[in-house]
């Protein structure tokens, strides 16, 4: 039992799945789950544990160098389930150029999708409708460019507690209303359990989303939330979310892509990376398969 | 300028409104905004400042004694805009008796409404649908009893960050779906700006709510949230919410009742009560009138 393996009310799986276990065929490790690792360590950690896909973040990719990142991922035979993240489209014109760089990087990495966290209210502003309109305008500029680069943008509705400072898109319904203005191959949505589990419409909106589901991310919701609410994400089984019905709904909607585990959690980051990955494998199998 | 009078980007009103100012005619001080005061002090503070209504909480009412609370409020000529709170209906059968006591108290105090915070997931449970069904069942028992006692129950959708531990009702739409099963004079809803401001449907649902609006509460949403996220509420003007459009929407929906300022905030609780009330009057006039 490791520091991060404290199941709450759910029996622990008997054993950590071995590399090659067919139950792991769609598992992706989001790189920020093991922020204690740099890109090389994360790629090697996936290979050791038999995780076939990885969700990358732009910062560690930049730290390694894009060309080296591309080579390492290819050498390890990993799929890149997503690149996190573009967005912050409420910040004005500079955001467009930053997103164009992110689209380029996603293309180079062969990422299935570029996740967009759309941004919160501009500093000092209380104009939520205006911020949402700015997101739509910026997306109209970026979507065709992403399409031309073979990159799919994925709008991520964030939990409403981040509406002011991180994302003025708070529900799947709202994200789909916006995504549906564009071709499905250009703009999809992210279903992240942590952000949407509370939503009384979550099952109806997952069904509606269908082929718009571009990314599926797993994290549990802890209470009490930690002092930094960004770090309230936990490994599946450590919080309040009932995963199997959500997994089944995403499956029923037709999603067949990778399933990322994306946890931001100070205790997880303080633990040994290989132990985190081993715990993740057990929790994933319990929750998903 | 007091410790709690730090307007963020909004000009301060020139002067604190005096008792008798017609702009204060619908203002109610929710007692928990000045938790540093006991019931006697809160009633006297309202009288000094010319606040014509008060939102009471059961705990300080019990501390004063119900009979004394009734007498003090009557002697001061205050309206009781609400009693906070009943609810926690997911906790099982014991909750019913507790709510019956709350209904009795609301009736004795002449409270316009009894606010219900419906409760989160039972300990160890991940059955969100089951918890919501339990709320509906308990409400079906309590609503006619409240009606018979002349007390209106008000379902309060809480911000989704409290879904797990405080309220499995998270949106106005969801609260209205439930309230509409009962006569409007038995069950209404609370519109609390802190809880609903982020909702892309908030204006549509306020319009839909119409005569179901049983209570209207003002608090601003701060970032970063404090370590105890229950205390993320701020005086209007100190956070991210644009109040006038929400106030106008509630008005357009036909609500003519009192407007409570309900702030849970460690800095506000540490300040002098009269200064808090004076700041509240200025912010209220800026935000509402």
Written description of the protein model:
Two copies of one chain form a homodimer. With 289 residues, chain A is of the alpha/beta class. Helix content of chain A is 40%, strand content 15%. Chain A has eleven helices and ten strands. Chain A has helices at residues 39-49, 58-64, 66-76, 94-109, 128-148, 172-179, 193-196, 202-209, 243-252, 266-270, 273-288, and strands spanning 27-30, 53-57, 79-87, 114-117, 153-155, 187-192, 213-218, 220-221, 233-234, 259-261. An eight-stranded parallel beta barrel of chain A has the order 1-2-3-4-5-6-7-10, surrounded by six helices. A two-stranded antiparallel ribbon of chain A has the order 8-9. In chain A, β5 (153-155), α6 and β6 form a beta-alpha-beta unit. The relative contact order of chain A is 0.17. The model of chain A has no long low-confidence stretch (mean pLDDT 94). The interface between A and B is medium-sized, with 33 and 33 residues.
Give the SSE layout.
Two copies of one chain form a homodimer.
Chain A (H helix, E strand, L loop, with lengths): L26 E4 L8 H11 L3 E5 H7 L1 H11 L2 E9 L6 H16 L4 E4 L10 H21 L4 E3 L16 H8 L7 E6 H4 L5 H8 L3 E6 L1 E2 L11 E2 L8 H10 L6 E3 L4 H5 L2 H16 L1
Parallel strand pairs in A: 1-2, 1-10, 2-3, 3-4, 4-5, 5-6, 6-7, 7-10
Antiparallel strand pairs in A: 8-9
Helix pairs in contact in A: 1-3, 1-11, 2-3, 4-5
């Amino acid at each position: 039992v490791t520091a991060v393996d404290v199941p709450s009310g759910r029996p622990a799986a008997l054993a950590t799945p071995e590399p090659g276990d067919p139950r792991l065929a769609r598992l992706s490790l989001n790189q920020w789950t093991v922020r204690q690792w740099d890109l090389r360590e994360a790629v090697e950690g996936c290979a050791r544990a038999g995780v076939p896909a990885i969700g990358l973040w732009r910062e560690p990719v930049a730290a390694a160098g894009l060309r080296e990142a591309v080579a390492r991922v290819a050498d390890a035979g990993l799929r890149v389930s997503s690149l996190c993240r573009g967005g912050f489209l409420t910040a004005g014109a500079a955001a467009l150029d930053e997103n164009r760089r992110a689209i380029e990087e996603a293309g180079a990495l062969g990422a299935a999708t570029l996740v967009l966290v759309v941004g919160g209210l501009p500093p000092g502003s209380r104009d939520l409708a205006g911020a949402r309109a700015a997101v739509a305008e910026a997306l109209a500029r970026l979507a065709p460019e992403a399409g031309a680069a073979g990159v799919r943008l994925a709008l991520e509705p964030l939990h409403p507690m981040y509406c002011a400072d991180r994302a003025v898109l708070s529900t799947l319904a709202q994200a789909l209303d916006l995504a549906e203005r564009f071709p499905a191959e250009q703009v999809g949505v992210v279903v992240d359990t942590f952000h949407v589990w509370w939503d009384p419409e979550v099952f109806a909106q997952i069904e509606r989303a269908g082929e718009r589901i571009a990314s599926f991310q797993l994290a549990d919701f802890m209470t009490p939330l930690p002092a930094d609410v960004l770090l309230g994400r936990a490994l599946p089984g450590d919080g309040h979310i009932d995963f199997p019905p959500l997994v089944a709904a995403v499956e029923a909607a037709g999603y067949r892509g990778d399933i990322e585990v994306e946890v931001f959690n100070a205790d997880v980051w303080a633990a040994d990376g290989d132990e985190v990955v081993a715990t993740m494998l057990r929790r994933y199998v319990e929750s998903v398969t």
